[in-house]
Amino acid sequence: MAQGEDQIRAWDRIGRAMGDAGELGQAIAARNLDAWTTIASNLRKGSYTTDDAVKDAGRWTTAFFDNMRDAWAVFAPPPAQAPGSVALGPPIVFRRQANLWECNSPPDVAVTANATASPHVRVIGSPSDTAKELEKFLVPRHQEGCIQFTTRGDAPKNGGTFLALITSESEDRVIVLAALPVIFV
Question: Are 159 and 100 in contact (CB under 8 A)?
């Protein structure tokens, strides 16, 4: 193959990636605008009930996870290159007890990918300071095809909407073993 053809294919790949990223940005912007327009409309009405707040929280959480799914679809490696499938685990639920958030028992998650290194937690979401607190609080360990959690220290002081990615790092790549929504109720 001629060097000119390689360059054309490389620029085509870059163009496709930029186009995909642009479409992703437009989809996320439209989804967020729709969610916030509905939430703002609910806030402006005469009475804002607990049911309205719960529905709006669900609306925003759904938009957040749809955004994460779409971003994953654009930026994840094609299935032929992926090292293993990512397990979507059950949610990690924090409940309000007095003035503190408590997480009684983080779930165990079955994984199919082979992890060679100790797993780590990477938390995506807002607010970012709570995401950092969650990364310190949740301690995963890989044992016989399963990720088990223990907790360390105090639970985060504030709630939010998050996605916990359980990763394992090797010398040349990071493998995502599982993804779990983190819910504050």
Answer: no
